[in-house]
Amino acid sequence: MQALATRAAIMTAAILIAAVFFVGTGAFLCVALYEALKLVLVPSLAALLTAGILLVFAFIVIAIGSSIAKTVEKKARKKHGPATAEIGLELGRILGEQVSRYAGRNPIRVLIGAVVAGLAIGLVPSLRGFLMRLVKGQ
Known about the structure:
Shape: elongated
Low-confidence stretches: none
Structural class: mainly alpha
């Protein structure tokens, strides 16, 4: 869990750095690049190329942050080894037993909860993406 938190913190920092880069210097870089490209290209193409170059820089920063986060996560997994997997299995067993007992006593509530969760996941793409990344461990 700590590795996941560390990875999330690193990704958040990488995204914030990319955002600060884009917002803070992007305007000045955009104008300078646009003016330079306008000498060679049609103004509309110069603007499009300027935006594309800035997006590439932002994606590079995010890719570097993602790479660092994956490295940290792999080191944490190697450090903790199989004991972490055993703890996870035991927690899953305990939670499974509790959920099974609750579902047996309250089937209507479980049905309503499942329908609401299904609607939320179906209607909110960002929630669906988050859950898919969480399940895949990315």
